[in-house]
Amino acid sequence: MENSKQMRTWLDDMKLDHPLVIAGPCSAETEEQVLKIAHQLKDTDVNYYRAGIWKPRTRPGNFEGVGSLGLKWLKKVKEETGLKTATEVANRAHVELALENDVDLLWIGARSTVSPFIMQEIADALKGTDKIVLVKNPINPDLSLWLGGIERLYTAGIKNLGAIHRGFSTYEKTKYRNIPEWQLAIEFQNKFPDLPLISDPSHITGNREMIFDVSQTALDLNFDGLMIETHFDPENAWSDAAQQVTPDKLVQIMRDLKIRKESDPEAEYNRELSNLRAQIDVIDSQLIEILGKRMKISDGIGALKKQKNVAVLQSNRWNQILGAMILEGESKGLSEEFVLKMFKAIHQESINHQEKIIKQ
Ligand code: PEP
Ligand code: MN
Questions:
Q1: What is the Cα–Cα distance from 312 to 30, expressed in whole angstroms?
Q2: Torsion of CA 165, 166, 170, 172, to 10 degrees
Q3: Which residues, 6+ apart, have CB-to-CB distance to 14 below 8 Å?
Q4: Is the CB of 110 under 6 A from ligand 1?
Q5: Among 35, 78, 80, 185, which is least packed by CB within 10 angstroms?
Q6: Which residue(s) pair with 163 in the sheet?
Q7: Does residue 3 surpass a pLDDT of 60?
Q8: Helix (H/G/I), strand (E/B), else coil: 96
Q9: Which residue CA neighbors atom 4 of ligand 1 most closely?
Q10: Which atom of ligand 1 is nearest to the CA of 227?
Q11: pLDDT tens string 161-170
């Protein structure tokens, strides 16, 4: 397997018998809220307590975070519960305040990873720190921006690095708040196999009902941990209300997830098998997605032919496509027989679509 880990990281040093768990509210709202959630998460699998203090909001006028006041609350969390703490930093001032107040883990948000200027400013401010720094993927599906952000931190001497996959913006409305584009996360793992990779199903789904499924897919794809937004009263949270879960629900999710702890040969076999199957599932969904797109274009052609009163079947065009695809298939190790069968089926579906349009 490609992505077997070679180097020991901060995560290996933690010697966990479960994936890393970062949980806590989207935003620190009040001191009571921060402490109440922390106490509820105290004796669970949670390793780091998260709370956003400076909140990047897409539109102005929403709750933009309590600011540096919240750092005192995170200190109290650590004193009262022993939980380590985590928050988002987005500029030099945030970094300096977070370091002064001994936050244990800093993450860089999706809106910051897109900006090389900001990433460089943050990297310079963090120079030489031994804190854990996690870089979220940029909001747009651009692998280089994500890798580039990590490289800037690495170059600044930050050794305890990791990444968070939180999905990507799209113009098209989908069932996700930010579509996972799993193949990009898989590519990321291939580029940086030793870097701990954490899944953020909360921001991928935007919907607490979907968090379990996305978490399971992430674990099957060998992710090293989960960051899940958690609040005692999710519906009334000041930000991201639809995606937060209660501490009880988080415990339930962790209990129900198939988490691979053992490392005997049989478990190793099952792990590799479910990883490969998860990759196949990702590609199968893409196949369906792309075939759906192809048929939409066929519908457009059907409408044009109807206008001009042209026959659906154009055999010259069809023979051309087949010839080209057989050659392309050969170069990818696909037999002529398979390519022929597949394209006959695609062509038939395409004809059915066009006939339906023409008969309308
Ligand atoms: C967050 O973690 O609350 C957050 C703002 O996330 P993102 O940067 O992924 O939007
Ligand atoms: Mn959030």
A1: 65
A2: 110
A3: 20, 47
A4: yes
A5: 80
A6: 135, 197
A7: no
A8: helix
A9: 109
A10: 2
A11: 999 999 999 9
